[in-house]
Specification:
single chain; about 375 residues; alpha+beta; 10 strands; about 50% helix; about 15% strand; globular
């Protein structure tokens, strides 16, 4: 086993770190306050190749591996999880889904623009009554021969108003259960497609999360991904990779909070010395560092499994479960180390604590990850 990063991976890490410090850090608090989407920053990330990192160069992607992607996600998430979740959805869910399961025509029409960052995409699975229970789709796509008629509502959709391309999971034949579900490519501006109000969220407030309404939207048959009835399998396969991206985001949030707490502990004095010299603080830092390092190895292992063609359902679920737990615990301790300063926005850690919570919820709650993990270990 070799735990060192290659020269290429180190370069990607440094590039992402520099971008986070120079482009994301300025006004990140203001964007959070105003719930303002990081439009210019996402455009620059596209120009640098971060929006289609794992897509082949023939489709305008960067042709990198999953490890490169999670390294970049960690660095971006240390500073701005609202920006990194846009990168995650576009890479892990939209680009991956299209490149792996789309037709050549779909790739040429949509993937080439998504991978270059010219446009961004959204993944539409969750509904008011179908979050963790993804089989209970109420959105319908009625087969009309050469097209589908799409009706229903999707909610909690990341990039809800900023996307141009939406991958929508819908029920075509309810009698077939999950085998009657399809995945359709829907474009912004199609008649009957309406974007609902923006959600006022606890964290990742710069990310635009919306409900989407589909009212007799006519979707061409050529916009279906895969064979008839492939939609549920498509969603589950795509989400398995998405969990690795969110695990990397959680890792980055935790690492960012830890770095701020470590720096603060060496500057803040109490009882005549820097607070890092007090065992109560030093032991907190020791626990944080240990947990983050363990989470990092789990995230990298899941990425390695994916890159080497191994089944990554288990390693991805474990990485997301643990990294999100570490993100929550670490950010709470980072606020505690900052004391009263940690409770105000200027020191960033309160925002990281708010951002951490969603990593235990989206792209499969922690409870769902435990179902995936338990089924895997009991099967063995």
């Amino acid at each position: 086993m070799d735990f060192s990063l290659s020269e290429e991976h180190q370069m990607i890490q440094q590039a992402a770190r520099d971008f986070a410090q120079n482009e994301l850090l300025p006004e990140v608090i203001e964007r959070d306050d105003a719930q303002r989407f990081p439009t210019e920053q996402i455009k620059k990330l596209g120009e640098l190749g971060f929006m289609g990192m794992m897509v082949g160069t023939e489709y305008n992607g960067s042709g990198m591996d999953t490890l490169s992607y999670v390294i970049a996600m960690e660095e971006l998430s240390k500073i701005d999880a609202s920006a990194s979740v846009v990168v995650s959805v576009n890479n892990s869910l939209v680009c991956y889904g299209l490149e792996t399961y789309g037709t050549e025509a779909q790739k040429q029409k949509y993937l080439t623009r998504l991978a270059s960052g010219e446009i961004i995409g959204a993944f539409c699975l969750s509904e008011p009554e179908a979050g963790s229970d993804a089989t209970s789709q109420k959105t319908t796509a009625i087969d009309k021969g050469d097209h589908y008629i799409l009706n229903g509502t999707k909610n909690w959709i990341t990039n809800g108003s900023s996307a141009e391309v939406y991958l929508v999971i819908a029920q075509t034949d309810r009698e077939k259960g999950h085998r009657g579900i399809n995945a359709l490519i829907v474009e912004k501006g199609m008649p009957g497609f309406e974007i609902g109000p923006k959600e006022n969220k606890l964290g990742i407030r710069g990310s635009d999360t919306h409900s989407l309404n589909f009212n007799d939207v006519e979707v061409p048959k050529e916009n279906r991904i895969g064979e008839d009835g492939f939609g549920f399998k498509f969603a589950m396969k795509t989400l398995a990779g998405g969990r690795i991206g969110i695990a990397a985001q959680a890792l980055g949030i935790a690492a960012g909070a830890y770095e701020l707490a470590l720096k603060y502990s060496k500057e803040r004095k109490a009882f005549g010395t820097e607070i890092s010299n007090h065992q109560a603080i030093a032991f907190k830092l020791a626990d944080m560092h240990t947990q983050i390092e363990a989470a990092r190895h789990m995230v990298y292992k899941a990425a390695w499994d994916k890159d080497n063609g191994h089944n990554y359902d288990l390693s991805g679920a474990m990485a997301k479960l643990y990294a999100s737990q570490v993100a929550m615990e670490t950010t709470v301790e980072a606020v505690q180390i900052h004391g009263g300063n940690g409770f105000v926005k200027d020191y960033h850690v309160e925002r990281l604590m708010r951002d951490a919570k969603i990593t235990q919820i989206y792209e499969g709650t922690s409870e769902i990850q435990k179902i995936v993990i338990s089924r895997s270990v009991l099967k063995d």
